[in-house]
Design brief:
heterodimer; A: 11 strands; globular; B: 768 residues; mainly alpha; Phosphodiesterase_MJ0936/Vps29 (chain A); Calcineurin-like_PHP_lpxH (chain A); protein transport (chain A); Vps29 (chain A); Vacuolar protein sorting-associated protein 29 (chain A)
Chain lengths: 193, 768
């Protein structure tokens, strides 16, 4: 949906929840912060974990997009391995990221971006948040919103993270949220087309 | 019968309407004598014996409204100078008793307002007079009329009638007498035949009785002390002397409703004693208790808990009385006693939120109660109550509840389905409250209680698949709450869970094992993150155990096992910097390839799994070079065996990353991979021009490694040449695939241009 009316839209980027297998539930602070009907789109990188949480994600915004993580095989509501989402003049490629060889590599992901004519890649898998630019393409990893254990990172305690995007025409405000000791810390930056 | 009733009522109402019309007309012409005559005729309709109580009530209300007009006229008469005593006297000329008394009450009410005689004198006089009506229904209503008319004429404290007209004691006395008489008449309505019909009829009229109690509670002069000393004892007297269950129940309820909770707190002992020892056996005491407890709990929560606790020991009072009921050989049904216990527990949890001793005591009496029953007494209702009983404390209290020794005693009375419900509620409480599981003893109790979910017990009942999945996920989530500062205790607790999980069958292990495995992965990281190593847990022991668990899953769930093995390798990789576990890791890697080769049939699945395998291997630093080379080589071979040619080519191309990454720098292998990929690609391009896509991918991969690995320039130009040759044909039909190819090729050309511009040496020679 390519509409000028996307101006001002707020997007939530999140994923890698693994509710049940790695973590018991989302932190209340995050649930209440996100459940306030202020989101227009939710983009989930996958690996949700259980139906209850999936249903919650579906209803916190009018537009929910989710792609399949390697542990989402039991979830038959997720149909796509990758999805292209148009927000204003930006084209976002949503994909879990376990499919890439190697993982987390901007140049490798660039090829996917190019062949789909997309500007931003939103992916997960590493449980480590990341916002970067490589040869005119942007890469955002919103981390794990539940603080689920991820084998790639070396810490036993992983902080829950997610990213909020604010679409402002040919700019996007990027807000990276991290839950530390019960408080949500925010880092902001801006990306331009 | 019903139609007859309707007709009687219609007839009576018509007469009332008629006579009222004439009465009003006479009043307008100031013809009092005539008006009184008509009002008498109207009131005579209330002499009837034909109407059912409900219909009599309807008639009564119609008459009542008309009498207001007359009352107003009397007031006007007084203002015009007519003497009240005269009026009082003249209405007594009415022929029939009923009209006479209604008129008397009406005049009396106005008379009181004149202050010529003390209120209490008139009121007591009226009370005496209406004793003449002893018919239950008619007597009830005339006293109701009395009550309504004298509403604001009582010598209440601070009212205009206090003083010469009496005082609060008189006011109380008058209402109590009225209540007592009305109650007696109400009870006489029961009669001896048609029991249930009479009961229904009585219930239709209960508000007339209740109004007396309301009136008492509205008196300004009824302070706490007055209530305690004068009002309550009298009400109790009426209640206990009546020996009628309906009356007793209703009056107790009214009293509890009408008076403030502070009063009840101060008179609780008295109230409870009456309830438990002095009421008829058929009275549902449990409801009265539950009512009281509900109100007091609300009161406690809205007010200072301090006063609640310090002044009166509410809990003990209730407990003593409830226990008395339990122990007495009364005919109170088991189910009702259980209801009561549940309500009491709820009350206690609300008012004394952290008092586990109270909870345990209630548990004990509940157990005693259950022990006395036969198997057959445990109906569905009773079982539901026991489930509630076991689950309620968990919402507010910690898991320490589980260590109360009475808990398992209660569980054993429940059939499988109910035990399963309790188990689910326990898990839910634990998960919802984020209760940390850090104590060994509590863990053991917890596992005992959630056994219905963990193993197939003797009286197991099948459940639908989605419910089974939900319950197992709940168990899995519980595992993640295990945590302790002392990691060896944390491990011991985890081991307890795992021991139980081992006893479940593979359907459960599908959910429980991964959770346990990830908990163990996390433990490994926690041990690695410690600044001082606790020596009691060895990596080896944990690794062996994890391997053992994954192996169990392998049989039925090979894909899951493969993914778990991949995670396992990464876990070892993060803690093993010195390749101490090289052989072990190599073993795991080999297992992965074996499963991939032998157990994964679906070709699409193979492609995505192989990518994951390669990406995982590309992260590893925990395997020695020789072993690693073997593993990576195996993976590459697997790529070459994929179903479709393009998948093979891309697969082999991807292998390059295993050989060249942060830890591996094997340029030779990389070059070999390119050669292999090219070979496969060249074999296929002949038949299928769209294969040019693969060549473009290969070209991009060259550029990926361009600055690290040496390639022959000619090799690359050859690829470019092939692309340029085959491109037109590939793009000719303009379908989805063509579009992709075009976009990618354009982007690739852009990439070279851009990097040339940035003066990156290697690109200068590329002619694209």
């Amino acid at each position: 949906m390519a509409q000028e009316s996307n101006y001002g839209d707020i997007l939530l980027l999140c994923g890698d929840l693994h509710i049940g297998t790695r973590v018991q539930k989302l932190h209340e602070k995050i649930v209440s912060a996100l459940g306030q009907n202020k989101l227009q789109h939710v983009l989930c990188t996958g690996n949700v974990g259980n139906k209850e949480t999936y249903d919650w994600l579906k209803q916190i915004s009018p537009n929910f997009h989710c792609v399949r993580g390697q542990y989402d095989d039991e979830n038959n509501e997720i149909h796509y391995d990758q999805k292209v989402i148009q927000i204003g003049i930006w084209k976002i490629l949503l994909i879990h990221g376990h499919q890439f060889v190697p993982w987390n590599d901007e140049e490798t992901i660039s090829v996917f971006l190019k062949e789909n004519a997309c500007d931003i890649a939103v992916f997960g898998n590493s449980h480590q948040s990341l916002i970067s630019k490589f040869e005119k393409k942007y890469f955002i990893n919103p981390g794990t919103i539940s603080g689920a254990y991820g084998s790639i990172k070396q810490d036993a305690v992983i902080q829950p993270e997610f990213v909020i995007l604010e679409c402002l025409g040919d700019e996007i405000g990027v807000y990276k949220y991290k839950l530390v000791n019960g408080e949500l810390l925010i880092e902001k930056c801006v990306i331009t087309k | 019968m019903e139609e007859d009733q309707e007709k009687y009522l219609e007839d009576a109402r018509k007469v009332v309407k008629e006579q009222a019309y004439f009465m009003r007309a006479s009043l307008e012409k100031a013809q009092l004598k005539d008006a009184l005559r008509y009002s008498s005729a109207m009131l005579s309709e209330l002499k009837t014996s034909l109407l059912s109580p409900r219909n009599y009530y309807i008639l009564f209300m119609q008459v009542f409204d008309e009498m207001r007009i007359l009352e107003n006229y009397f007031k006007e008469e007084y203002r015009r100078g007519r003497k009240m005593p005269d009026l009082y006297e003249s209405v007594q000329h009415a022929t029939y008793v009923i009209p006479r008394l209604y008129l008397l009450i009406t005049v009396g009410s106005v008379f009181i307002q004149t202050h010529e005689i003390g209120a209490k004198v008139i009121l007591l006089d009226l009370l005496e007079c209406i004793k003449a009506i002893q018919h239950p229904l008619r007597g009830l209503f005339i006293r109701y009329y009395f009550l309504k008319l004298c509403k604001d004429r009582l010598p209440d404290t601070g009212s205009e009638y206090e003083g010469a007209g009496g005082n609060i004691d008189d006011a109380i006395e008058i209402i109590i007498r009225n209540l007592s008489e009305m109650n007696k008449l109400w009870i006489r309505m029961q009669g001896s035949k048609e029991k249930s019909k009479r009961e229904r009829e009585r219930m239709d009229l209960k508000v007339t009785i209740g109004e007396n109690v309301t009136r008492l509670s509205n008196l300004e002069g009824v302070s706490l002390d007055t209530y305690k000393a004068k009002v309550l004892p009298k009400i109790i007297d009426i209640i206990t002397s009546s020996k009628d269950a309906i009356s007793q129940t209703y009056l107790m309820d009214c009293t509890i409703q009408a008076f403030p909770d502070e009063y009840h707190l101060q008179t609780l002992q008295e109230l409870l004693k009456v309830c438990t020892t002095q009421l008829e056996p058929t009275v549902d005491i449990k409801n009265i208790f539950i009512n009281l407890m509900g109100r007091l709990a609300d009161f406690a929560l809205n007010n200072d808990m301090g006063t609640f606790n310090s002044e009166v020991d509410i809990y003990s009072m209730f407990k003593q009385n409830i226990d008395k009921m339990l122990d007495s050989n009364s005919q109170i049904e088991f189910k009702n006693l259980l209801d009561l216990q549940v309500a009491f527990l709820n009350f206690t949890l609300r008012c004394y939120p952290s008092n586990s001793e109270y909870v345990n005591d209630i548990l004990k009496s509940c157990c005693r109660l259950c022990e006395r029953q036969n198997e057959t007494d445990f109906t569905e209702e009773c079982q539901k109550n026991i489930v509630k009983f076991l689950a309620m404390p968990l919402d507010t209290m910690s898991l320490s509840i589980l260590t109360m020794n009475e808990y398992p005693n209660l569980m054993k009375h429940l059939p499988f389905q109910k035990r399963r419900q309790v188990a689910i509620k326990i898990c839910q409480a634990v998960v919802n409250l984020n209760q940390v599981i850090e104590d060994l003893k509590i863990t053991e109790e917890l596992l005992k209680f959630i056994s219905p979910l963990l193993i197939t017990q003797n009286d197991y009942v099948e459940i639908p698949e989605n419910e089974f999945e939900e319950e197992q996920q709940l168990v899995a989530r519980t595992v993640h709450l295990v945590s302790n500062q002392d990691l060896s205790i944390q491990n011991t607790i985890l081991q307890k869970f795992i021991a139980k999980f081992k006893l479940g069958d593979v359907n459960r292990q599908k959910y429980t094992y991964p959770a346990a495995i990830f908990a163990l992965f996390k433990l490994v990281q926690q041990i690695a993150g410690q600044t001082e190593r606790q020596q009691e847990i060895s990596y080896k022991a944990l690794f062996d155990q994890i391997k053992e668990l994954i192996e169990v899953l392998q049989g039925n769930f090979p894909e899951l096992a493969l993914k778990l093995y991949l995670n396992f390798l990464l876990c070892i990789n993060t803690v093993d910097q010195t390749q101490e576990f090289d052989e072990f890791s190599y073993d795991i890697g080999t297992q992965i390839i074996t499963i991939f080769q032998d157990e994964i049939g679906d070709s699409n699945l193979k492609v995505t799994l192989l990518n994951q395998i390669m990406s995982t291997f590309a992260q590893l630093n925990c395997i020695n070079p020789e072993n690693f080379d073997t593993l990576a080589g195996n993976a590459t071979q697997q790529a070459a065996k994929l179903l479709k040619k393009n998948e093979q080519a891309i697969g082999v191309l991807n292998s390059t990353h295993m050989f060249y990454n942060r830890y591996q720098k094997n340029a030779q292998r990389v070059q070999e991979c390119f050669k292999k990929a090219l070979k496969i690609a060249n074999q296929s391009i002949g038949n299928n021009p769209k294969f040019v896509y693969v060549f473009i991918q290969i070209l991009n991969k060259y550029f990926y490694f361009f600055e690290q690995v040496e390639f022959k320039e000619a090799e690359i130009q050859e690829v470019i040449k092939i692309i340029n040759e085959k491109l037109p044909k590939a793009l000719s039909d303009n379908d989805e695939q063509s579009k992709k190819i075009k976009i990618l090729w354009t982007a690739t050309q852009e990439l070279v241009k851009e990097r040339k511009r940035r003066s990156i040496q290697a690109y200068q020679q590329i002619n694209i």
